[in-house]
Amino acid sequence: MSQQDAPTGPFLPVLDQPSTRRTALKAAGAALGLAAFGKAVSPLMVIPENVSVDEFLQQHYKEFTDADKKKVFARLETETKEDYGTDVTISDPKPIPGVRFGYAINLSKCNGNGACMEACNKENNHHRGVDQSYIRVLEMSKGSMDMENGTTNYDHTVPQDDKFYMPVQCQQCENPPCVSACPIEATWQEDDGIVVVDYNWCIGCRYCEAACPYHARRFNWEQPEIPADEVNPDQGYLSNRIRPQGVMEKCHFCLHRTREGRAPACQEACSTGARVFGDLNDPDSDINWVLKHKRVFVLKEELGTQPNFFYFFDS
Amino acid sequence: MSSITAQNQTPIEPADPVRSYPRFLWWGLGEATNGGLGFYVWMFVLTAISLVGANAWANQVADGMIVTNMTDHVSWGLYIANFTFCVGLAAGGVMMVIPAYLYDDEEMHKVVIIGEAVAVAAIVMCTLSVVVDLGRPDRFWHLIPFIGRVNWPVSMLTWDVIVLNGYLLINLHIVGYLLYMRYLGRKPNPKWYVPFVFLSIIWAISIHTVTAFLYCGLGGRPFWNTALLAPRFLASAFVSGPAFIILVMRILRITTGYAAPPGPARTLIQIIRVAMTINLVMLASELFTLFYTGGAHGASANYLFFGSHGHYGLVPWIWTAIVFNLVGTALFFMPAALERGNIRIVACVLCIVGIWIEKGMGLIIPGFIPSTLHEIVEYSPSLVEWKVTGGIWAFGFLLLTVLLKLIATVFAQEQSIAETERL
User: Fold this and answer.
1) Comparing A263 with B5, which gets the higher pLDDT?
2) Could you say which of B51, B135, B151 has the minimum Cβ distance to residue A247?
3) Which of A106, A201, B131, B224 could be a cystine partner for A274, CB 3.0 to 4.6 Å?
4) Domain spans of chain A, in order of start
5) What residues of chain B, 55 to 84, have a C-beta less than 8 Å from chain A?
């Protein structure tokens, strides 16, 4: 290896190596290699095209001042206009003090019609190509609560006589494993119990998706496609605004609606009355009536996640 | 080779050893890129594969992770599988450090730097494997402590980022310092490297433990949620690491003619015999619990080993791994494995491939199948994923080659000085 052009001793400075043919060839090789590398990674040039300096340097949601917020929301509105051709308003409704949201599903009533999934898809500006939604409805065999006997891709008229239907979405756990997993605090639990994601902080490592025991998290494998006339213009920064490519998203109990006193889209769309939503801290709420009068259960109770999402049957 | 060069032959002392360190590195890079035709062909091929990988990754960043075969059901794939193996490779290098420094094995001391070079290259491969798995690599700075916003100490992934980078820095320091001192013809000051060597021993164990905690801490994934995972990771790392180093020493002997003393390889094979036996016992214990108990805990194992509901995607993988591991282990136990020869080489290759599958495709993927809602969606890596992973391996080998050349040059130069003295 050390040949005639190698120094016989460790002479310094060594920068002035004799410019032999080998050195010249090496320099040419290095230049060629660098050029080839530049060419190979040239598709990365979409990053400066799609990510402005402001977006690149954007701080975490919790570090925003009011002025930052205004600026960021305005930028996002402009970008949505450019990319999707629609005027949208991005808002940031805060948790209502003293409120803690809970959800319950009456499995005797749910008939698996999937209206909730469809409503979620529209309300939350989901990618249209894959019928994305935050809800999966399991068709289960009567006589078993084992999800192994369930299926989500049933394609026949509902309800079937020997089946019952169990919608699963984010359980808004009191003790959310996804939040513990996130290496950069891009996801957290708000005061009203809703677990949210800062889509502009998430790096897309998908550790939260591995951590979630309920398959409640989704990744944006590509840039969502939504026709301009189907974009829901009423958007929340932490909820249904159109997500960037390469980040996680999840059910947020339609916080842009529920924090303003409206029902979540899935509940509004449900024609069977299976869905009960409300404030767990309000003794007179529908959800508290269910908790008091029905025997409810939660999914995978043994994991200690303490869901704020309940299931029950009519007796 | 550890003999100290005579004082009267001391080369020109740089005025400031700290400031001339970059010059040393520059000189080393020049020396490390000298070689014969075979060397240049090797480097050219590795560069070409690395570039194919870099290009595939750049396209993945532009078009989205949709170009991989990962889904919301199987949300980690080949990248994380390969990452897990590479962490083991990096940690396994410590099995040279322990005999050399804790047991003062003279011969091991002479070649321990090879293990440290392997660790450096493996850690770089780990980092690359994680970066290519990110949906938004442009936001990497969110992970940097004090600049971004790290979820420490709760998130195991934050811990992993910290310990992996720490391990890289420790090993770069040790390798760099020892080589530089040799180059200057000075005796290394133990104060400047021995504490780091001991730190690196603890740290090597920590990187693989934390990586296991990444998976086994998740209650929602019964297949991973076992206290045996970290010990199994360590045991298999202490096979794959030493096996890889034995291969590297063989390649060095063929290409550079540098024959390491026979002792270190023998020590490594003894270590492999013990570690692989422990690994297989733990695997058997794990399988007993999974299959005898059955239920939700056994569902993934059932899919992995026998297929379930008409899906058999991982069955050929895992049986290949089992056969390779068993045959490899049997070969290691043959007396001939202690001598130079092809038996130990075949055994090393079989165990490396077996462990790569067992810890990678055989551990990461079945964690997601069936999914947490018990759906079965299968996964096999896309061409892009294979290209990127191939690129990472090629780059790892490129880096390792340069490091080993640098080491060999410094050692050879020291030897020539010693010879001059003798005249």
Assistant:
1) A263
2) B135
3) A106
4) 111-259
5) 55, 57-59, 61-66, 70-73, 75-76
CA B46 to chain A, closest CA, distance in angstroms equals: 11
User: For residue A190, with 0-12 CB atoms within 10 Å meaning exposed, 13-18 middle and 19 or more buried, which class applies?
Assistant: middle
Residues B66-89: b if buried by 16+ CB within 10 A, e if exposed: bbbbbbbbbbbbbbbbbbbbbbbb
Domain residue extents for chain B: 17-264+383-417
pLDDT in tens, A16-37: 455 678 888 888 989 999 999 9
Residues of B in contact with A37 (CB under 8 A): 51, 54
- For chain B, positions 229-268, list CB contacts with chain A under 8 A: 256
CB nearest A203 (choices: B20, B54, B140): B140
Report residue A272 as tokens: 């069977």
Tokens standing for B31?
């020396």
Q: How far apart are the first and last CA of chain A?
A: 84
What does the pLDDT read at residue A8? 43
Sign of the alpha-carbon dihedral angle for B256, B261, B264, B269: positive
Domain B17-264+383-417, architecture per CATH: Up-down Bundle (1.20)
Kindly determine whether residue B65 and residue A246, on different chains, have CB atoms separated by under 8 Å.
yes
pLDDT at B14: 58
Of A160-164, B3-7, B167-171, B390-394, the poorest mean pLDDT is in B3-7
Neighbour-count burial for B202-239, b at 16+ CB within 10 Å, e otherwise: ebbbbbbbbbbbbbbbbbbbbbbbbeebbbbbbbbbbb
The lowest-confidence range among A169-173, A213-217, B7-11, B37-41 is: B7-11
In this predicted structure, the answer to whether residue A149 has a pLDDT above a threshold of 90 is no
Nearest-Cα residue of chain B relative to residue A29: B44
CB contact under 8 A, B372 and A8: no
Residues A222, B62: C-beta atoms closer than 8 Å: no
Cα distance between residue A51 and residue B61, in whole Å: 12
Collect all residues of chain A within an 8 Å Cβ-Cβ radius of residue B156.
Answer: 181
| Per-residue pLDDT, B8 | 38
Closest residue on chain B to A250 (Cα): B72
Q: Which of A24-33, A211-220, A285-294, B231-240 has the lowest mean pLDDT?
A: A24-33
> What pLDDT, on the 0 to 100 scale, is given for residue B260?
84
What letter does residue A262 receive in the DSSP assignment?
P
Residue of A nearest to B410 (CA): A10
Distance CA A193, CA A100 (A): 6
- Check whether A12 has a pLDDT greater than 70: no
Token digits for B142? 């969110």
Q: At what angle do helices B156-184 and B190-216 cross, to 10 degrees?
A: 160
Q: Is A65 helix (H, G, I), strand (E, B) or coil?
A: coil
Can you state the percent helix, strand and coil of chain A, rounding each to 5?
30, 15, 55
* Spatial contact of B50 and B394, defined as CB atoms under 8 Å apart: yes
Residue B137 has what pLDDT?
Answer: 96
Cβ distance B373 to A5 less than 8 Å, yes or no, reads: no
CA nearest to A201, candidates A243, A257, A254: A243
pLDDT value at residue B369: 95
- Mutate which of A12, A63, A64 to test chain B, going by most B C-beta atoms within 10 A? A12
B34–A6 C-beta distance less than 8 A? yes
> Which pLDDT value is given to residue B4?
39
Compute the C-alpha angle B55/B57/B63, nearest 5°.
100
**Sequence-separated (6 or more) residues with CB below 8 Å from residue A149:** A140, A141
